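step: validate -> pass
step: tokenize input -> pass
step: predict -> running
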Amino acid sequence: MIVLDTNAVLYFLLQNDEEKAVCVRDTMEQETCLIPVEVFAEAVYVLDKAYCIDRTQIQRKLLGFLQNENVETTRRGVVEKALRYFGETKLDFVDCLMVGYALVEGHRIFTFDKKLNKILTQTDKSEP
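step: predict -> pass
step: emit ->
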């Protein structure tokens, strides 16, 4: 198994350097690739802040990326839930991860963040 860093994921998603994108694609075809939660967090941040990509497009791109046969991630359910919340709310991605940890893994979240607390109490009743 090989771990892909954020740059590799971004080259694959953005296709802004054909040679590097092909190299990442070839690696993904030949090996199982692990994408840590931290890489998703950084990728979301870069796609949002540096490339100004719409939140729903980021959601679609990264959820689609997770569908690749040889792509694995730590905490898959948490990441998928966080990406869904990111595309459907105004929360930053790390807060969306907190929601994912609460909903998918049943963790209680301790925070002073009012927006996050509001979402967490709403999720007890319904989810986006």
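step: describe -> The mean pLDDT is 94.
step: cleanup -> pass
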